[in-house]
Amino acid sequence: MDKALDIWNELKACFSQGYLSRIPDLQMEASSLNQGHLSVTNYFTKLKIIWDELDNFRPNPVCFCNVPSITAQRKREDQAIQFLRGLNDQYNDIKTHILLNMSLLLPKCCPTRMSVQ
After folding, report:
1. How far apart are CA 82 and CA 50, in angstroms?
2. CA torsion angle for 103, 98, 77, 84 (degrees, to 10)?
3. Taking a C-beta distance cutoff of 8 angstroms, is the pair 30, 49 a contact?
4. What pLDDT was estimated at residue 20?
5. Are the C-beta atoms of residues 36 and 88 closer than 8 Å to each other?
6. 22 burial type by CB count under 10 A (0-12 exposed, 13-18 middle, 19+ buried)
7. Among residues 74, 75, 88, 101, which one has the least CA distance to residue 44?
8. What pLDDT score was predicted for residue 108?
9. What pLDDT is attached to residue 10?
10. pTM of this structure
């Protein structure tokens, strides 16, 4: 094993543990954030900063199977929905249209997609 990697992993383990309590705060901050008086760009930027900080604490898993790509895709979908839900009411028609199209794009094997028989 590489000595530098061992040192990095040790430092990461020591210093990241104290910040685990920050994760619920960031999640709450992101879920309660609304566009309000902000422009769409500024609203998205604020959310993106929170999401990036969450990613620092909980990066996507690394492996050579399909799980990371599925996990990353679900995270992106959750973030898109979170962004849309926080937009002002003037965007309701657009939000509805996007959310309907997103549900149509879910894979058929996805348990959240209902099939009509």
Report:
1. 12
2. -130
3. no
4. 73
5. yes
6. middle
7. 88
8. 53
9. 78
10. 0.69
Q: What is the dihedral of CA 37, 100, 81, 32, to 10 degrees?
A: 50
Cα-based distances in Å from 6 to 22, 37, 106: 25, 47, 41
Domain ranges of the chain: 3-105
Q: How many CB atoms lie within 10 A of CB 20?
A: 10
86's tokens: 């926080």
Residue 42 sits at φ, ψ, to 5 deg, of -65, -40
- What type of residue is 10? E
* Amino acid identity for residue 39 in this structure: S
Please tell me the distance from the alpha carbon of residue 66 to that of residue 50, in angstroms, as a whole number. 26
Average pLDDT, 10 consecutive residues per value, the chain (117 residues): 77 67 91 96 97 84 70 87 95 92 65 43
Q: List, in order, residues 6 or more apart from 85 with CB less than 8 Å away.
A: 95
Cβ atoms of 50 and 26 within 8 Å: the answer is: yes
